[in-house]
Amino acid sequence: MEDVFIIEGSTSDDVLNELRNARKKMKPDSFLDSDEINIQFEKSSKKPKILPDEQANRVYGLVINGHSLAYALEGNLELELVRTTCMCKVMICCRVTPLQKAQVVELVKKYKKAVTLAIRDGANDVSMTKTAHIRVGISGQEGMQVVLLLP
After folding, report:
1. pLDDT tens-digit profile of 104-119?
2. Contact call for residues 50 and 113 (beta carbons, < 8 A)
């Protein structure tokens, strides 16, 4: 992995800047006016748009904490979050709420033509798993509660 970006901003502006800096490093030309996605979103339309896949110049990862994720999931930052994280090979969300887990899955479903998979091992993962297309429960000490909840 070339680099791992850590998103830990404590304000909406901090999170936006950190996400943009990461995207700028991964794909500098994504900020040009001629960029396909920039053109697509400048056109006014109320229906959600499916984002085309973007390729980063190397292999990257992203880590975001729950506090920063709360800002990134706001309407004005969600597109930046999706564009940046979908260029990464891995995204790790740490210290997030069960609702935030579900919101991340929902965001991918909204902007990407993708099938989502959620793996849960405890009761706090239920909302995320219900949101995903494919649901997996892992049995174990906490996971047995989850297995009983699976349809």
Report:
1. 999 999 999 899 999 8
2. yes
